[in-house]
Structures are given as C-alpha cells and as structure tokens.
POK18 protein (Nothocercus nigrocapillus), 64 residues
Amino acid sequence: IHVIRHLSSCFATMGVPNEIKTDNGPAYMSARVKRWLDSWGIKHVTGISHSPTGQAIIERAHGT
C-alpha cells in the first residue's frame, strides 16, 4: 500500500510513465502492486537483486 501511495504522489507531480524499473523487493513484487501498475498501463521492469550496476542506476536516478 505504501508503494502505491508513493508512486501515486510521484505520478501526480511528474506524470505517468510508460515504464518503471524497481528492484525485486517484496513491496514491488506484490500482486496488488502488479494489478495497480497494469491498471495504469505501466510496464514494470525489475533489476537483478544485489546487482551493483542495476542498483547504482536506480540510486543515481533517485539521487541517493
């Protein structure tokens, strides 16, 4: 539920993306999040868990 709330807030500010990339964390992999992303027509791409390169790209995009 927190993921959906957070993404909804992001979409309200930045617009709805065609695709979103996340790690394979349980919060992002739930059936509820999948249904919600599908309802928005958003393709969900996941990275490889514990992948330094994939995680670096995500953290760079987030500014962390």
